[in-house]
Amino acid sequence: MKHLAVFLLTVLAVIACQDSTEPVGIDAEVVNGPSSVELSGDTRCVGTLTGTFDNVFVPVGKSCTLKNSTVKGNVKALPNSKLFMRNNRVDGNIDGDEAILVQVRGGTVGGSIQIKEAFSPKVLGAAVYDGTVLTQGNIQIEKNETGGILIRDVHLKKGNIKVEENITRSSFNVVRNRVAQNVQVFKNRGTNQKYVRNNTIGQIVQCKENQSPFVGGPNDAGDAEDQCF
Q1: Cβ within 8 Å of residue 187, ≥6 positions away
Q2: What are 94-137's pLDDT values in tens digits?
Q3: pLDDT at 223 over 70
């Protein structure tokens, strides 16, 4: 009987210890510093993040600066988030779906960059610039209403650039890029000046139905159509 009582007390003590353990939620953050929580191979980024990761995502409404990092998979900015990228290597894709802004400065991307359906009329909402290299994929910037779009000094070794159905408030620049295949700039609106010029394009540059003022060249391309030359 004595041994049974000892056994029951031991079991109750173990249960009590288990019940007192606090769960770690995916919303855990580090105040005044970087924040990341890994869950099933995905790293949540809030604040500033540096390191090596499988995949990175920016939660809804949060802001992330990812710099000097290696991402073996993809980077994704969720709705109403802000993503600033500086000199990273991303083996997969970079996606901004209804994010306030996605800015990619330098580094290499193995897949594609897609920024779409943002509402950010006061900021530079879509930017890929300053020596960013895409080794395989494309740049697609579509259906954003934003302060500005910038694609400048980017090298696409195999892919295309497509900028379509955006509304800009202050700036629109697709300039000084080296593109292996095609550049398409279609149906962009806004009363600000729009530039597509000084690009070196392996195949065709095609610009059509863009609201004036619009400057479509000069560009060095295999062929130029409509508003571009």
Answers
A1: 164, 165, 208, 209, 210
A2: 999 999 999 999 999 999 999 999 999 999 999 999 999 999 99
A3: yes
Is 23 within a domain? no
For residue 24, tell me if it sits in a domain. Answer: no
**What is the pLDDT confidence band of residue 41, given thresholds at 50, 70 and 90?**
confident
Residues 73, 52: contact at Cβ < 8 Å? no
Residues 6+ apart with CB under 8 A from 219: 183, 196, 197, 198, 199, 200, 201, 205, 228, 229
CB-side exposure of 40: number of CA atoms within 13 Å?
Answer: 2
Pick from 160, 158, 165, 177: nearest CA to 219: 177
Instruction: Tell how strand 155-156 and strand 178-179 pair up.
Output: parallel
The domain tally of the chain equals 1
Backbone angle region of 190, left / alpha / beta, with phi > 0 → left and psi within -120 to 50 → alpha? left
155 burial level (CB within 10 Å; 0-12, 13-18, 19+):
middle
Contact between residue 127 and residue 103 where contact means Cβ atoms under 8 Å apart: yes
Q: Which token pair is 101?
A: 């802004």
Backbone angles phi, psi at 127, to 5 degrees: -145, 130
In a domain, 1, yes or no: no
Ramachandran angles phi, psi of 8, nearest 5°? -65, -40
- Is residue 163 predicted with pLDDT exceeding 60? yes
Closest CA to 101 of 138, 128, 74: 128
